[in-house]
Amino acid sequence: MELFKENKFNPVRARLLYDSEGNSKGTGFVEMGSAAAAEEAAGALNGEYFQSRKIIANVANQNN
Question: Is the residue at 63 inside a domain?
Fold first, then answer.
């Protein structure tokens, strides 16, 4: 959530994924307050770098 807050986005919650040994998988989910906020955040952060890793941000399909 740090990355989102640094860029003036206000996430509702975030969930990072870990393997069975507790190591980060380098992926996660961030819930935004609205579809418009999610689109804006994904558009702004996709392709940026955080902790030397390239961000791939997109909006999840809510119908699944």
Answer: no
Tell me the residue type at 53.
R
Inside any domain, residue 27: yes
Strands 24-31 and 49-50: unpaired
Contact 33, 16 (CB under 8 A): no
CB distance 45 to 39 below 8 Å:
no
Predicted structure pTM score:
0.78
Partners of 50 in the β-ladder = 53
| pLDDT value at 21 more than 90 | yes
CATH of the domain at 12: 3.30.70.330
